[in-house]
Amino acid sequence: MARLQLLAIAAVLLLAGSACADKVKAKVDFKKMKAMGLVAYRESYKNIEDIEGAVKDTDPNSKYSGEYVLEVPKKGEEGKDKYFITKDDKSGLYYFVNLATEEAQWHDPRIPASQLSKPGDSIEFDLSEGADSKATKAPVEPAKPRSKTDSITIAVVAMIPILIFVGGTIGRIAYLQMYYPELLWPKKERKHRQRGNNGKVKPQKTRGKMNQDGKGGRSAN
């Protein structure tokens, strides 16, 4: 029984460890990386402050003057692509619109396409003259921010070995209580005292060193 319990605990620990490793690998502490001077680009942003390099357009002749924009160097070419950044009211996430191609996307344009979880995701925007620059039509759902469910799942998986150990211990105690209670609650053996004919308990003989006069046993001499 104990061997099976240990094997079960070991198996659950391996599963829990692999699950937690995947969760930890997927989770990135962006604030800590930013404090260390490192830059990590995301597939979705909820705060404009988290978008590294986003600045307000100061060109008075620009259609997006006063709005947040992002300049990204072109790959293998000279110059930069300019992206307009705005917020989607439905999801609360920011998206990027390439002003040259009028293509929009949820993820940071600096992330390589090979690293995207959904490389085909895109959004349709109407950027024609006279149209609302923030009007959007998003047929594809954006990447949702990390929910509290992931943290709860990690906590539950981590507690499984503890619950199995506690459950096994309680089961073993219950089994011993039903069939072998003397192993759980051992009683001290009382010394057997013989009673005389008058019902009184006979005094026990003194053992060890005898009196000097030799009464009651061997002489000490």
UniProtKB/TrEMBL annotation:
InterPro entries: WW_dom, WW_dom_sf. Residues 113-147, 189-221 are annotated as: Disordered. PROSITE patterns: PROKAR_LIPOPROTEIN, WW_DOMAIN_2. The chain crosses the membrane at residues 152-175. This is WW domain-containing protein. Residues 210-221 have a biased composition (Basic and acidic residues). Residues 1-21 form the signal peptide. The keyword Cell wall biogenesis/degradation does not apply. SUPFAM superfamilies: WW domain. Keywords: Membrane, Signal, Transmembrane, Transmembrane helix. Residues 89-111 form the WW domain. It comes from Edaphochlamys debaryana.
